[in-house]
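User: Just a sanity check before I run the rest of the batch. Below are the structure tokens for the first item. I only need the designed sequence back.
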């Protein structure tokens, strides 16, 4: 990707430490719930879901948690995050790197919720995941959109990332805008190759 440089982000151990200290606990707060609801609206009850960079079980819980009839697999490289989630029997989580996920096979829905802008090669990951959708599957990507005045570097970087998605996938439907209070996200729903 060309354009603005990504601000510095935590390496794997940094995430581990941040989850242990509760830094990401706010993701379960009500203010974030609109984003999870917008993601869940794209996911049928029996869809085979791969949640990449799943963190704790916030999205999983919104999808029904242990009562969810469809399969769910989460992947994250932070054991502390995975251990803080409440995963039900019959659903799985795997500790691994998004860049080389220990997961094979195809999924109906692949989720990258608040993950893409932490990755070194985001478009490579998007390409790989997009290619592993089932026919008529969908790749769901959410991007937090900070305002330029509060977080100028992040705002520019994430704008460029969203623009890069459009260049790479020009037929992608327009992104949904999700807002709660002062927080805004875009939700990009990328249909499986050949099904758009
Ligand atoms: C902001 S949290 C979002 C968590 C979850 N997707 C959600 O929306 O609640 C970002 C997550 O991405 C994970 N992550 C970041 N880089 C990763 C990588 N290279 N491989 C696996 N997980 C990664 C972090 O450990 C963290 O759990």
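Assistant: Here's the designed sequence for the first item:
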């Amino acid at each position: 990707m060309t354009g603005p440089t990504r601000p510095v982000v935590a390496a794997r151990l940094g995430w581990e430490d941040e989850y242990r200290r509760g830094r990401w606990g706010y993701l379960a707060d009500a203010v974030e719930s609109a984003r999870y609801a917008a993601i869940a609206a794209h996911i049928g009850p029996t869809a085979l879901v791969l949640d990449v960079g799943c963190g704790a079980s916030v999205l999983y819980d919104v999808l029904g948690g242990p009562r969810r009839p469809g399969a769910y697999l989460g992947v994250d490289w932070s054991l502390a995050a995975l251990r803080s989630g409440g995963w039900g029997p019959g659903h799985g989580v795997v500790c691994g790197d998004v860049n080389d996920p220990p997961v094979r096979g195809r999924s109906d829905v692949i989720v990258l919720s608040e993950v893409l802008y932490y990755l070194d090669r985001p478009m490579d990951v998007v390409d790989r995941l997009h290619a592993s959708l089932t026919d008529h599957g969908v790749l769901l990507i959410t991007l937090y959109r900070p305002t330029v005045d509060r977080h100028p570097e992040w705002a520019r970087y994430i704008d460029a990332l969203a623009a890069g998605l459009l260049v790479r996938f020009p037929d992608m439907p327009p992104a949904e805008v999700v807002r709660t209070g002062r927080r805004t996200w875009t939700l990009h729903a990328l249909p499986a190759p050949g099904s758009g």
